[in-house]
Amino acid sequence: MIRDLVLYIKQERIAQNLTMSELALKSSVSQKHISNIENEKVIPTIETLEKLAKALGFEIALQVKVRRP
User: Among 1, 20, 29, 40, which is most exposed with the fewest C-beta within 10 angstroms?
Assistant: First the structure.
């Protein structure tokens, strides 16, 4: 799930013709951290994903499902 979100964020950044540096300025997430996220060197927190999504103009909605035996 996180990997899919990261891929979508990267694709959206590219579609909007934003560099990592430009996204960093818009999101308050460092360019190095964005690079590490996009290259799967770190697993981002939900908070970081939300900052990136907001900077790109969309929101992340999470749904929790409880499975009972």
Answer: 1
